[in-house]
Amino acid sequence: MAGEKVEQRRRWREFWRRFSRNKLAVVGLGLVFMMFFTGIFAPWLAPYSYTDQNLDAVEQMPSLAHPLGTDELGRDQLSRIIWGARTAVIIAPTATFFGVSLGLLFGLLAGYYRGWVETVIMRFADILFAFPGILLAILIAATVQGRIEAWLKGFEALEGFVKAGFAQVLVVIVALSAVGWPGMARLVRGQVLSLREEQFVEAAWAIGARPWRVIRHHILPNAMVPIVVSVSMSMGGAIVAEAGLSFMGIGIRPPTPSWGALIIDNYSFWRSPAAPVLLWLPALIVGAMVAAFNFVGDGLNEALSPG
Amino acid sequence: MITYIVRRLLWLPFLLLIIAFTTFALGLYGPGDPVLVMLGQHANPEAADRVRHELGLDRPFLVQYADYVWKAIHGDLGESLKYRGQPVGRLMVNRLAVTVQFNAVVMAVGLAVGIPLGILAALNRNNLIDYFIVLLTVAGISLPVLALAPIAMWFLAARFHLLPSGGWDGIFSRQIIMPTLVLSIGPAAVFVRQTRANMLEVLGQDYVRTARAKGLREYTVIVAHALRNALIPLFTIFGLMLGGLVGGGIIIESIFGIPGIGRLVWDAFTARDYPVIMAYTLLVAVAYTMANLFVDVCYRFVDPRIHYG
Question: How close B164 comes to chain A (CA, Å)?
Fold first, then answer.
């Protein structure tokens, strides 16, 4: 038992040694931690509420009271950015989780069972690929929006959640997962197709291992590296996609702050001197987070790949 | 080879049928009513019903779908609900011309910038030039159009008045410079990354060493031996981007006021103009499928090791 623990710690140390060789990956990981920290502790970090309007102090430049200035309704920009991190922290991992889970399930089924299962699943993925991605997300979001809101209203206890914009968050998650899974399914299927030809898989079959056992113990562990890397990268993708949906007026709507919504809401300030804090900052944060997740993905790839 | 192409093409009608069905269903069960958008929220219900009847929107779902498919097979994609009396086909063709021109310029710029920078980075592996280019690439891949556009607009239009902030006046106008700049950064970065990676791989191959050992000039080695092989994988990206050419950027066209197909679809979505949305999804699906087929077929000629059954 103790030996196992030591072994595990040794592995972690080895992983970290290889991961930290890539300096950009370490920086990226730092940014990702910062995003999660800010998102989780938003209520304690934000100096103001994200809805507090102060019509005596609209469109202010940065000052001591408002370190990042205020928007056209006098809302504190810093607080809105901090609360925006919470939206990102909810949406990015959840949308990625569902997208990846669906993709993993379908990819494994298609690659392992081949035959008609594979045909049906991959044809379905083909169809989704041929759809213009953002338009499909918009159509799905628009279609499920009313239904999800009505459904959540049915639960008395969730009334507060609906008011807090939870329904919108759910809509975005549904839309992004629906659009996101085919890519993962293709990736996983490709991995499984090459692994099932390996001798250790054949050996497992030969001794009569059940399909689930073969998948769990022999195929999945060996297919894990590209999956983990793509999970990291699709987290950044989810943040951008959310911004795109906001731009279309779908998904996160005012007053719920999300980085995408902040860009869109303040778009009319593009020629104002306050543009750098009101508009560029959320835009650059989105860009920085995408870069951060990509760096972490690269770092994971280098740390986990053998050799 | 012919069988392969035919088999791939036979899938296309099924794909289009399913895509049309899905879009149709999402349109019908989605929120918003094109008739109410047309007549205003407080329209007389009888008038709304009459318009609905005229447009055939009161028929059962499957009847509407079958009718749409039947007409589409005969080349009639219906009439726009927003621009009454305008056939969708003609509406699309005009906008498509703008989008294709714009995207062609974007891709040309992306290639013209991306490939030389990629080669430059590979030849300067691990020195300052390489690091600088790689850093630019990372920024280019990460920064979404939505983030780049306002910054470019502020510097180039608001602050220094160098360029107009939007509009469209053909591909040889000043208006096209800024959107091209913003939109081509992404593709250029992808081309840099791929070219650099491929060049590095090819430069390590035996035939490059042989070429050098023969005493060929470095220029000949790079251009005739290395570059030719390094650019083949770029073909896939290029081909798939070609398919995306008709799609247009819904976001970028809205930001910069380019009257292309992306803009048309965005307007159609706000007006619930489903005939236009339908036609758009079908167009993108055809373009995507054909681009994929094109890439696969061409690959066979470029790389003789590949065989298709």
Answer: 12
